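Hi Y.,

Following your request, here is the sequence exactly as I used it, all 506 residues.
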Amino acid sequence: MRFGLCVTVVASCFLPSFSIPVIKSLTNGRSFFPGQLKEKRCGPVSGFYGQKQPDWDANGMDGWLNTWWNNHTADISSNSMGFAGAFGQWAIGNPDWSCRDDGSSSDCDFDPCDSRVLNDKGNDIRQAYYTMESVNRLHSYFTGLGQAFEVASIGAALSKDSWATVFYKDKDVKSVTVLKEIINAITTVIGIGSAFAGLAGAGAGAAAGALNSLFTGAAAVATPLIGQHQDDTFQKSADLGGILGKIVLEAMKSYIAANNILMHGDNFQSSSDIRSYLKGGLFLAFPGVDKVALIDSMNAFLTGQAINQLWRTQKIFIMGGGACGDGQGIGSGPQDHVVCRDGKAWYLYYWQENDVVSTTAHQWGWMAAPPGADQLAAGTNYPGVTIEDVINSSLDSYNVARFSYNADTAASRAKDALTNGWGNPGAAGASWEGVFTIPVCDVGWAAGSTLQGKEFILQPYDHDSRPMWCGPVCTGDMQTTKDFIAATNMNNFDSPKHLCDTPPGY
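Below is the corresponding structure, written out as tokens. Let me know if you'd prefer a different format.
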């Protein structure tokens, strides 16, 4: 009989490799599969391994956690580690489970396998396990942010020499408002970066409530830091990268401190506690912060914002709306700085004013590439930002708010995209709307018009290229054209109309 049992066991061990091994117990003859062995060894909790973000809502976790919280407020208050300690005591019998950012590499560790306390929770095993996994991974999120921003890579990437001379060649030195506008936009960039880091492994729209907390929480810590730099002058734009990098690093350092506040069960920025960050299961299967992708995204946003604000002080604009390849009798644009989108061509322009006294036609200026555009096209000194990004981002900004897209619009739109799932700003990088807000003029309508000089509306880059805009060139509407002229700093600038037979009206 003993020999027969041995044969049974040995035979099972020599099944072909493509078969599912079935192992028999020598005590009661029961058969079970490898997954059941794992459960036998680790307890019932192993049946909930391999969790996914949607499992949170599918099992009513938000409601369950709220109920647990309300029933254990005294435990949270009495535990020196607050919420994390109280939950650790209840779920795994460890009152020192703090998940604090205090230099310890193990204060948030837990091993659910063979945990008697956890496996004795009955109907609450799944919920206890999901909560602990989410808290642990939220802690890893903050740790990942800290590691990403410990290095000076973001400051180094932004600290280029002479920003103001690379991307600015206008004759008039502009005011301090240029730098202020760039700095004001940083709150949105930091919020986007925070949400982007948390979206690793999840699609846009996942756990909207948690993404809202990540966005608003991170943006809030930047606000007091911005005030410290409001007196910086335009001349400091030469060190613009250093200023931006410093603010971002300071903000992220402050934001990472939210870990301890949340783990203790307190409200961060007087708005929400850890439950809002866990809401929807954003961190239930969080794989960790992709530090390289995060830094690249933040650099692209900050670089784009900075270039945009410098360019917005000059006569830089986007014009197009005709068929890709032109040929419609409204001129021909520069083919090296163009985007063909939805069958329409859009060109990036800079109306270069004559910088010497002249009585020739050159006194009216000419069409050129914007200052620094060649470096964006080269893709070396300012990686992550392309000419295509400039045009696409500006077109999206124009479609949303015409010439009025500002920092408030950017914040509102980014937050809406994250919480309603129609976009992931961090993944889009510098092509995201609002990074660039270069004024846009749609001249496609002129193809079928009798507008004087319409064949000279679009021009290539050349010292002898001088467009003619003899009427409501933008969409055929005079008010839109006036708004465009103002947005491109061309008020009281006669060059576009110097050959018109009659005043064009703007």
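Residues 78 and 277 are 23 Å apart (CA to CA).

Thanks again,
Q.
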